TrEMBL record, chain A:
Family from the record: Belongs to the type I cytokine receptor family. Type 2 subfamily.
Name of the featured protein: Interleukin-6 receptor subunit beta
Transmembrane residue ranges: 625-645
PANTHER family in UniProt: INTERLEUKIN-27 RECEPTOR SUBUNIT ALPHA
Main location as per UniProt: membrane
Biased composition (Polar residues): 778-790
CDD domains linked: FN3 (cd00063)
Source species of the chain: Loxia curvirostra (Red crossbill)
Its membrane topology: Single-pass type I membrane protein
PROSITE patterns, alphabetized: FN3, HEMATOPO_REC_L_F2
Region (Disordered): 719-762, 778-807, 880-903
GO molecular function, one term: cytokine receptor activity
Domain Fibronectin type-III residues, every copy: 131-228, 229-325, 333-431, 523-617
Matching Gene3D superfamilies: Immunoglobulins
UniProtKB/TrEMBL annotation, chain B:
Annotated keywords: Cytoplasm, Developmental protein, Differentiation, Growth factor, Neurogenesis
UniProt superkingdom: Eukaryota
Broad class of the protein's primary localization: cytoplasm
Transmembrane segments: none
Signal peptide positions (record): none
Protein name: Ciliary neurotrophic factor
Length: 918, 199
């Protein structure tokens, strides 16, 4: 309890001590302090601090040195570094100050728990200044009388402390104020510098940890001057075209400093400076004459100076001044060349004389005119032609021959030496050999091997090869002792044609040409390939050469790349001279993609893709298939025909069963004496008015099909037999028509089709529409030679007939070529119609019509009256019901000629004046 | 005297002479420029005649060519010490009169004062090489110091300044001649150089 109160009192006392004014008048009185107060320490050194407690605090607060703890920036210092010196003093020791930080505080643990700060100090750690090194000074001339000295030095390592540098200088008998750098620590500028006295200069660096001085520099400031460059530089032309005089003013009087100079100059527009030999300008002066200049050339001059004895520094170069030398006469004649155009006539030349303007250093002035002289050497009597030309070309019409052309350039001072060009009648001399080119950076070197004879000059022509314009010739002359020149102005990626002519004293050699590129690139586009012909396994590709502008280099080869959609690409290399190539071993009926690549030495470019499809069949394959097939088909047909022809009897027999001979039927008696020949010459004769001939109608009761006994059918068999005996005499078409009708009537299912098939080929019956006397005429059909199809009216009649009757349970078949109405054959009665022609017996035309009961109306729109027909039908029906008796309705005999009369079988019961349907 | 010199001493002497000659030449040039500025700034007439300034030894001397080297050096040293004191006084008066209004003239005066000091140092060094004691300055010799300059009017001060600068210019010319004379290898005879050698 006591202890607690004691500590409370102690804390209160400390608080009072801190807050109450002390004896010295301060507001704060702490219970202790640290020695040393805010020290500056050398980095890496050791350091010991003492915390001293006030006695008053000891007495009242019961605090002792043993309770002191040290902290660095709130970090507790290990107690191993503490040392209790006595009851009021505690020390802490740091072996390396680099571990120190600010603040270092002395604290006390009251009652072992409450931490109370006693005192704190700021610790500054740094380095002593190093000795400044490399002190150097330079005196700059600022104006005519003003000089400033700037000294620089190396300040050494960073000290981490506030370090002050001072530049000190003095004379032996005088000390000048220090120069203190502003914002920097490595240079300072002195303004009141005085010459001709050795001045001692040094740098002093000072901080809290020490002071260091640089080595002493003893120098007369006059020896370290960098003067201002000469001013008011002027250039005047001298009397000579190769001399210019340079004048200037110096900023420094000789009393202060004598100077030497450097003079440099260059031709205006060029970059390289030339310099006057230094020894020529090593003495004080204010002017200098520069010699050896080119006439009429603009020069740029600049000058600088320094102390004559070489001590100090060169001034900056003065501002550039230009001057122009005066003119001189041209130093050489212009290079001249010719282009001879013999297109008009070989004997008459159009000679283009061309020459190059002299270079400025050759012209030595302004060329006023060129004096051209053309002398015909082949004819001494020819006058010399003289021309004054202001341009650089001249065209003359000359006859073929040898000419000497002389050219002189003239300026205001005088003429140039003459240039002479010999134009021989022919270039018969030896050419250069081994002409070759080699790119050299931006120039194209052209080299050759000289001919054996002495060559005066070489003329090198070159031109840019273009597909769209003519070759614009450029040329250059080289001396005879060289074997190669550099062509300038050559563009990369362009093709040049270079020709070299040797010029001899007595003639001219023929030109040798070579194509060259300064620099090659890959083509600007690839060839466009397309197919010329596509086969089953091959394709002929064709393309055009790239233009010279597109080539960008020498085309070394073409590469064809082709592939199927899913196949690997195949590569074929083609000679660059080709424009066509045949791809072989292709797969038939396959889509191919092909493209083409042109390659130079520097790369390739591919053209657009082209697709094509190979053919399915090769050439002749279709023919090889179709022709044999056709031939085989024809052969088969032929064989079939032959077979059918050979077996026609069998076929006929099989297809057309023998129609029973009605004459042999037991239904009626057929009279063989019936006139077998009916010589019918015409229809009128055949069918006289109101009469029918050879018409037999058999009516059979359809409902009583069973009533047909074999016996009843015998007459048909007989007829069939008779037919078989006469079939060899039947006429082709008529016979077939006659034969087809029964067949159709027998086979109902095939009726329609068969009938239709035969309708186009079977001759039709002739329809006789005459009535008998006053009666309604009855339509009767007879054979017709016509091959026309059935008339629409007939077909409509059929339709009408087909739809007319459905109630009578009778069907009537009127068998003609176009028999039909199978819809009405639900219960067919057997019907046969047979016409047989017996050629041997004469031409009988018979028309047999079997009408089957149940047929409600006359098919094909026959003109038979319905009532009449019905009457007849009723008769037939009656006959059928009575016992298959057939009553011929109408038979009218009509005499016919043997040739024309159709043959027919007529029932014997039918006679003249017998029953005829009406 | 010259025969007794060591090579380094001879070199040093030649260097001092050479440097002194250049310094005197520059000093003269600067003083001439300063004279123009001073006349203009002080509103004086350049052609105004000024009586001899008290305390300044005259540059013109009879039988100059008969003087010995040491004598020349001593006369030069006395003169330049006097100039140093006068120029310092002028500089102070100038600052009092114009303040910082004409800093250019003040800088020029200070520069000339430095040159005078430097030249005096050269002369002292040469005298040391001559193995002669350097005479103490008047101020050192007299315990009371130099007598206070008479109280002059402003115009009189201007005229005195003009006279000081003119005489300094004269002395600069003479000093060049003296040092050239000293720089010759056989100065013992005291033969005076020709006038053609004047700068």
């Amino acid at each position: 309890m006591f202890s607690r109160w004691n500590w409370v009192a102690c804390g209160f006392y400390l608080l009072l001590n801190i807050c109450s004014p002390d004896a010295s008048g301060g507001l704060v009185q702490s219970c202790g302090h640290i020695i040393p107060e805010s020290p500056v320490l050398a980095l890496g050194s050791n350091f010991t601090a003492l915390c001293i407690l006030n006695e008053s605090c000891l007495d009242f607060g019961n605090i002792y040195a043993s309770q002191i703890i040290w902290k660095i920036k709130n970090r507790l210092v290990p107690k191993e570094q503490y040392r209790e010196i006595n009851r009021t003093v505690s020390s802490v020791t740091f072996n390396d100050t680099s571990s120190l930080a600010t603040p270092l505080t002395c604290n006390i643990l009251a009652d072992g728990q409450i931490e109370q700060n006693i005192y704190g100090i700021t610790v500054t750690v740094g380095l002593a200044p190093e000795k400044p090194k490399n002190l150097s000074c330079i005196v700059h001339q600022v104006s005519r009388f003003t000089y400033v000295m700037t000294c620089t030095w190396n300040p050494g390592r960073h000290t981490f402390l506030d370090t002050q540098f001072r530049l000190k200088y003095r004379w032996p008998e005088a000390v000048f104020p220090d120069c203190i750098p502003k914002d920097v620590n490595n240079s300072c500028t002195v303004n009141d510098i005085q010459f001709f006295v050795n001045t001692e200069i040094w740098v002093e660096a000072t901080n809290a940890l020490g002071k260091a001085e640089s080595d002493r520099l003893v120098v007369d400031p006059i020896d370290i001057v960098k003067p201002l460059s000469p001013q008011n530089v002027s250039i005047t032309s001298g009397l000579l075209p190769t001399v210019l005089q340079l004048s200037w003013e110096n900023w420094i009087s000789d009393a202060v400093m004598t100077l030497k100079f450097n003079i440099r100059y260059r031709i205006a527009g060029e970059t390289n400076w030339m310099e006057v030999p230094p020894e020529d300008t090593a003495s004080p002066r204010t002017s200098f004459s520069i010699q050896g200049l080119r006439p009429y050339t603009e020069y740029v001059f600049s000058i600088r100076c320094m102390k004559e004895d070489g001590a100090g520094y060169w001034s900056d170069w003065s501002e550039e001044k230009t001057g122009v030398t005066i003119e001189d006469q041209p130093s050489k004649g212009p290079p001249i060349w010719r282009i001879i155009d013999t297109s008009q006539s070989p004997a008459c030349w159009t000679v283009h004389l061309i020459w190059k303007a002299l270079k400025p250093y050759e012209a030595n002035g302004v060329i006023l005119q060129y004096e051209l002289t053309v002398r015909d050497k082949s004819s001494l009597s020819s006058p010399v032609k003289k021309y004054n030309v202001t341009g650089t070309n001249h065209t003359s019409q000359l006859r073929e021959g040898t000419y000497e052309v002389t050219l002189i350039a003239r300026n205001s001072v005088g003429p140039s030496p003459p240039s002479v060009l010999l134009i021989p009648a022919s270039n018969s001399k030896a050419p250069v050999r081994n002409l070759r080119t080699l790119p050299k950076h931006d120039k194209l070197w052209v080299g050759w091997t000289a001919p054996n004879n002495y060559v005066l000059k070489y003329v090198i022509e070159w031109c840019l090869v273009s597909s769209s314009s003519d070759c614009m010739i450029e040329w250059q002359i080289a001396q005879g002792d060289v074997q190669g020149i550099d062509l300038k102005g050559i563009k990369p990626f362009k093709c040049y044609l270079i020709t070299v002519y040797p010029l001899y004293a007595d003639g001219q050699g023929s030109g040798q040409s070579v194509k060259a590129y300064l620099k090659q690139d890959r083509p600007s586009k690839g060839p466009t390939v397309q197919t010329k012909k596509v086969g089953k396994a091959e394709a002929v590709l064709t393309w055009n050469h790239l233009t010279v502008e597109e080539q960008n280099g020498f085309i070394r080869n073409y590469t064809i790349l082709y592939k199927t959609i899913d196949g690997n690409e195949t590569v074929v290399t083609v000679d660059p001279s080709k424009t066509e190539y045949t791809l072989s071993s292709l797969t038939s009926d396959t889509l191919y993609t092909v493209r083409m690549m042109a390659s130079t030495d520097n790369g390739s470019r591919t053209g657009p893709d082209f697709t094509f499809t190979t053919q399915k069949f090769g050439k002749g394959e279709i023919e090889a298939i179709v022709v044999p097939v056709c031939l085989a088909f024809l052969l088969i047909v032929l064989l079939g025909v032959l077979f059918c022809f050979n077996k026609r009897d069998l076929i006929k027999k099989h297809i057309w069963p023998i129609v029973p001979d009605p004459s042999k039927s037991n239904i009626a008696q057929w009279s063989p004496q019936v006139p077998a020949k009916h010589n019918i010459s015409s229809k009128d004769q055949m069918y006289p008015e109101g009469s029918f001939t050879d018409v037999s109608v058999v009516e059979i009761e359809a409902d009583d099909k069973k009533s047909f006994s074999e016996q009843d059918l015998k007459p048909f068999d007989l007829l069939k037999k008779e037919k078989s005996t006469s079939e060899g005499h039947s006429s082709g078409i008529g016979g077939s028509s006659c034969m087809s009708s029964p067949r159709q009537s027998v086979s109902d299912s095939d009726e329609g089709e068969t009938t239709q098939n035969t309708s186009s080929t079977v001759q039709y019956s002739t329809v006789v529409l005459n009535g008998y006397r006053d009666q309604t005429p009855v339509q009767v059909f007879s054979r017709s030679e016509s091959t026309q199809p059935l008339l629409d009216s007939e077909e409509r009649s059929d339709d009408h007939a087909g739809g007319a009757d459905s109630t009578a349970q009778r069907q009537q078949y009127f068998r003609q070529n176009g028999g039909q109405d199978e819809t009405n054959t639900d219960r067919p009665c057997f019907e046969r119609t047979k016409q047989i022609t017996h050629a041997n017996e004469g031409d009988f035309v018979g028309f047999v019509q079997l009408q089957i009961s149940g047929q409600s109306s006359q098919p094909l729109g026959l003109g038979m009256e319905k009532n009449t027909q019905e009457a007849a039908l009723s008769n037939v029906l009656q006959t059928c019901t009575e016992g298959q008796t057939v009553r011929p309705e109408t038979v009218e005999e009509n005499p016919l000629s043997v040739d024309e009369m159709p043959k027919s079988y007529l029932p014997q019961t039918v006679r003249q004046g017998g029953y005829m349907p009406q | 005297m010259a025969a007794a010199e060591s090579p380094s001493a001879a070199l040093r002497r030649r260097d001092l002479c050479s440097r002194g000659i250049r310094l005197a030449g520059k000093m003269r040039a600067d003083v001439v420029d300063l004279l123009d500025a001073y006349v203009e700034q002080q509103g004086l007439d350049a052609s105004a005649s000024v009586a001899a300034v008290e305390g300044v030894p005259l540059a013109a001397v009879e039988r100059w060519d008969e003087q010995t080297g040491t004598q020349r050096l001593l006369e030069n040293l006395a003169a330049y010490r006097a100039f140093r004191a006068l120029l310092a006084q002028m500089l102070e008066e100038q600052r009092e009169q114009l303040g910082e209004a004409d800093a250019g003239l003040g800088r020029a005066l200070a520069a000339v004062l430095l040159q005078v000091s430097a030249f005096a140092y050269h002369l002292e060094e040469l005298l040391r090489l001559e193995s002669r004691g350097i005479p103490g300055e008047e101020g050192d010799e007299e315990e009371d110091g130099p007598p206070p300059p008479p109280r002059l009017s402003l115009f009189e001060r201007k005229l005195r300044g003009l006279g000081v600068l003119r005489e300094l210019a004269q002395w600069a010319v003479r000093s060049v001649r003296d040092l050239r004379q000293l720089a010759k290898p056989s100065p013992a005879t005291g033969t005076a150089p020709g006038l053609a050698e004047s700068p």
